[in-house]
Automatic annotation (TrEMBL), chain A:
Lineage: Bacteria, Bacillati, Actinomycetota, Actinomycetes, Pseudonocardiales
Protein name, per record: ABC transmembrane type-1 domain-containing protein
Keyword check for Transmembrane helix: yes
Compartment annotation: Cell membrane
GO BP terms: transmembrane transport
Pfam families: BPD_transp_1 (PF00528)
Domain of life: Bacteria
Membrane topology: Multi-pass membrane protein
Record-annotated ABC transmembrane type-1 domain positions: 85-268
TM spans (from-to): 27-49, 88-110, 122-142, 148-167, 255-274
TrEMBL record, chain B:
Protein name, as recorded: ABC transporter permease
CDD domains linked to this entry: TM_PBP2
Keywords: Cell membrane, Membrane, Transmembrane, Transmembrane helix, Transport
PROSITE patterns, per database record: ABC_TM1 (PS50928)
Single GO cellular component term: plasma membrane
Alphabetical list of SUPFAM superfamilies matching this protein: MetI-like (SSF161098)
Membrane topology: Multi-pass membrane protein
Highest taxon of source: Bacteria
Keyword hit for Transmembrane: yes
Localisation per UniProt entry: Cell membrane
Limits of the ABC transmembrane type-1 domain: 95-299
One GO-annotated biological process of the protein: transmembrane transport
Length: 282, 313
């Protein structure tokens, strides 16, 4: 419909929109490439990695024995790159898995048990939101609680408030409730309706949410490792390697930039693909 | 509205109490003997005994907590084990650097996010919009320290335009603008995406709103339509997102200060953690939690005032 015969200007011309789709495809390919390199290094790399025993000549240039040279501790850089991603990937997966395993039942029960339980639980979780994530890891490190277990527990713990809120929200979605009301009327027990069936319906949005948290968790874990408050310095991990080699940034930038670059590629690739996934879903 | 604001302030106070108790419990009940954990395996029996006295470990836990909490209320956070100075003095010296860094980051961040959000929001789906969104999301996804290192490699090592770190400076003295460019860039690029996205969504919605479409039909010039009607509608809902951004900046400050050797509270906190200086760790943890709680509270109250229907206090 027009007023006074004046058409409102179209927001984006059709040709620009088509170019936008081409750009989107290009970004998707870039995302796949960026993610593939660090992921392959992390999952397959350890099987081909040369030894990373310390004690060689520090900061050696590339040679047939050490294809990418050595770091400040005299370890083979290629070996460090191929072995250092395993911790990043496994710890991220473990922390996210733990967070969702704990948060899913809490979220489902909270959604099922009415307003009082909901208000109290969400209120308690909101109190947790007052803690900046890195702060929790730093206080734990300062008090001698430094191990893989503490790291995974703490990272999972700081995700809880967000995930419980998401699961509760998804479980209360109208489409979800309409389908379940029928089951309740046919006399199914409440746990079957509210936990098992609702849980199955809540799973897809929860998995999508988990993918959006990957980068945050990788960032948190690697920041903690870089600050020396995460993994033990003896563990081979990209962020720990960056931290240990910071003094060599000017002498041989590659020992710092290559592991940092792999972390950048991992996060950037994941994010581009997750963004694409979210857009397709919406 | 007033009752809801009261409840929200009550929740904030509760958050503070819980955080203080949490920090005390975590720093009091260490795995093993506190003095031994702090001093490490090479400490002598005498050193351990002295530290036990300093930390008051021979007194009951309840009494120590009341002492510590009472001190907090009076602004007394105890004495550093490493330097022997009051924790508050050490914090005061460092606070100016962090505040300067945070203010600069916000001053760059807000106009940039509004500009990018508006530009993309006025052309949704166009290549420019997609590239802006993709670049800012990637910058946000990359860990602060890794992005910082890449920038140092490019601008300090390769091009030699900027200093790599601010090592050697104490407080604000000796700090130059050039030293702050890269730290501010890292902080901004990490927070830009969320804020620019929020503005973009607001602008897309405001741009398609009935009254805006009507104003265009009436022939009002585009500049006035955008500045007077689209922009305010797009920016106001972003206030709450801005608070989350400040929240993120606080976490970013810790990493960025450590990376660029800036003498602020973030690097002070990292040092205290590395030397296991418990009174200082307690002080910084409370400071960071207090700032987070206050910023979130302020944002919730402001956005409840501006867009009452969007916020459930």
């Amino acid at each position: 419909m027009t007023v006074l015969g004046i058409e409102p200007p179209p927001v984006v011309p059709r040709r620009a929109r088509r170019r936008g789709t081409v750009t989107r495809r290009a970004l998707r390919v870039l995302g796949v490439v960026l993610l593939a390199v660090p992921l392959l290094a992390a999952l397959v790399g350890p099987f081909f990695a040369p030894s990373t025993a310390a004690g060689g000549v520090p900061l050696q240039a590339a040679s047939p024995e050490h294809l990418l040279g050595t770091d400040v501790l005299g370890r083979d850089l290629l070996g460090l790159l191929l072995q250092g991603g395993t911790t990043v990937v496994t710890l991220t997966a473990a922390a996210l898995l733990l967070a969702y395993l704990v948060a899913m039942p809490i979220g489902l029960v909270v959604a099922a048990r009415g307003r009082i339980v909901e208000t109290v639980t969400i209120g308690l979780l909101d109190v947790l939101l007052a803690l900046p994530s890195l702060l929790v890891l730093m206080v734990l490190a300062a008090t001698g609680r430094r191990s893989v277990v503490w790291l995974v527990l703490a990272v999972a713990f700081v995700q809880l408030p967000y995930v419980v809120r998401l699961v509760r929200g998804a479980a209360a979605a109208p489409a979800c409730l309409a389908a379940l009301e029928t089951m309740t009327m046919t006399g199914e027990p409440w746990w079957r309706v509210r936990i098992v069936e609702t849980g199955r319906r809540v799973l897809p949005p929860t998995i999508v949410d988990a993918t959006t948290r990957v980068c945050g968790v990788v960032g948190l874990l690697s920041s903690a490792n870089f600050l020396g408050v995460g993994l033990d310095p003896l563990v081979v991990d990209w962020a720990v390697v960056v931290d240990q080699n910071m003094t060599a940034l000017f002498l041989r930038p590659s020992v710092v930039l290559l592991p940092a670059g792999l972390l950048v590629a991992l996060c950037a690739g994941t994010n581009l693909l997750v963004d694409d996934l979210l857009e397709r879903r919406s | 509205m007033t009752t809801r604001a009261g409840v929200r302030i009550g929740v904030a106070l509760l958050q503070l109490v819980v955080v203080c108790v949490g920090v005390f419990v975590l720093t009091t009940f260490l795995p093993g003997d506190t003095a031994e954990v702090v001093l490490g395996p090479l400490a002598t029996v005498d050193q351990i005994d002295t530290l036990r006295g300093q930390l008051g470990l021979d007194r009951p836990v309840g009494e120590r907590f009341l002492d510590w909490a009472g001190g907090l209320l009076h602004g007394d956070l105890g004495t550093s084990l490493a330097t022997g100075r009051p924790v508050v003095d050490d914090m005061g010296d460092r606070l100016s650097v962090t505040v300067l860094l945070a203010v600069l980051a916000v001053v760059v961040l807000v106009p940039l996010a509004v500009a990018l959000g508006c530009y993309g929001g006025r052309r949704p789906g166009s290549p420019a919009d997609r590239i802006i969104t993709a670049t800012t999301t990637v910058a946000q996804a990359v860990p602060d320290f890794a992005l910082g290192l890449l920038l140092v490699a490019l601008f300090a090592l390769q091009l030699g335009w900027l200093p790599a770190t601010a090592a050697g400076t104490v407080g604000l003295s000796g700090l130059t603008v050039a030293m702050l460019v890269l730290p501010v860039a890292v902080l901004v690029s990490n927070q830009l995406s969320r804020l620019a996205r929020q503005v973009r969504i607001g602008v897309v919605e405001a741009d398609a709103a009935e009254h805006v479409v009507h104003l265009r039909r009436l022939g009002l010039d585009e500049r006035t339509v955008v500045l007077r009607h689209v922009l305010p509608g797009g920016v106001v809902p972003s206030v709450q997102q801005f608070a989350r951004t400040v929240d993120g900046l606080l976490g970013g400050v810790i990493v960025v200060e450590a990376l660029f050797a800036l003498p602020g509270v973030g690097s002070g906190f990292v040092q205290a953690v590395q030397t296991r200086d418990l009174p200082v760790v307690q002080g910084y943890a409370v400071l960071f939690a207090l700032t987070t709680v206050v910023v979130n509270l302020a944002a919730d109250l402001v956005s409840a005032k501006l867009v009452p229907q969007a916020v459930r206090l």
